[in-house]
Amino acid sequence: MEEEEEVESKVVAVMDQFEDKDDSSSTVLDLTSYQLHDLDSVELAPSLTELDLTANRLSTLDPRIGNLANLKKLSLRQNLITDAAVHPLSSWNALSALEELVLRDNQLKNIPDVSIFKKLLVFDVSFNEISSLHGLSSVSETLKELYVSKNEVAKIEEIEHFSQLQILELGSNKLRVMENLQTLTNLQELWLGRNRIKVVNLCGLKCIKKISLQSNRLTSMTGFEGCVALEELYISHNGITKMEGLSSLVNLRILDVSSNKLTSVDDIVNLTQLEDLWLNDNQIASLEGTAEAVVGSREKLTTIYLENNPCAKTPNYTAILREIFPNVQQIDSHVFS
């Protein structure tokens, strides 16, 4: 009872503050972590452009939200929203100009129908129980960011029309194959960590800047050669035995190949922009040849991880690395001023 009274008083305080503002500035309402079961005690001003209901206990959508014609951003993250509860969204035509919809961390089993949102830029349904991307084909082609991580998705599909997409997050699913990416010509970031992917297939993408394939089933690095704009590559926790296919990635700044089965450092001599190199938890036996392998980024490199390799037991290990890399700021967990 005391908890409910405390929540109610918080809501009243927020609403008082909201109402004190001039109507023209009453555009953002943030009710994050108020543990609300409903919005009965909340006034929803018609001027709202952003409504954040993160971390409450909502199991239904207040129909008044459907009248907020100026709304651009709606977050229902971390609630108790089911497929049935989210269904009214599909008929709330007054919200057709919505640009950002966050349904992350709820109880959805399917991609909801959001076809009325013709200007949608950000769509987040991560941390649900979604088993298929079926339904994405009706999502607006204006989309720039799509997040479907931590679900049960087994196939990349119905994304071909997202030619404006810049970020695609499908980590922590059940994907085995990289496919249907070829039309995502503006894609900048691809996050596919914690899946079951064995082979890299970027379907001809050349403009991408960040790729994560951590914790998959890769045994080879080949497949990245055409990604000449790539700046960050994360492929730790796989079964890769050889560094290869990297020489064309001349814009690479961050390379994480930790926790693999590498025995030597290879194919990165051309990477003159490399700043961070993570090689820890491999089977690299010796520091011999390392200087030659990274000669291109010798001046640029500021961070290197080699701990938990046999070579890390070399006498004067840290001193040798600091000599190889004159501008290094961090070796393993040791930070230098």
Automatic annotation (TrEMBL):
Keywords annotated in UniProt: Leucine-rich repeat, Repeat
Domain of life of the organism encoding this protein: Eukaryota
UniProt-listed SUPFAM superfamilies: L domain-like
Cited SMART domains: LRR_SD22, LRR_TYP
Xref: Pfam families: LRR_4
UniProt key word Repeat: yes
PANTHER family associated with the record: NISCHARIN RELATED, PROTEIN PHOSPHATASE 1 REGULATORY SUBUNIT 7-RELATED
Protein name (Swiss-Prot/TrEMBL): Protein phosphatase 1 regulatory subunit pprA
Species this protein is from: Flemingia macrophylla
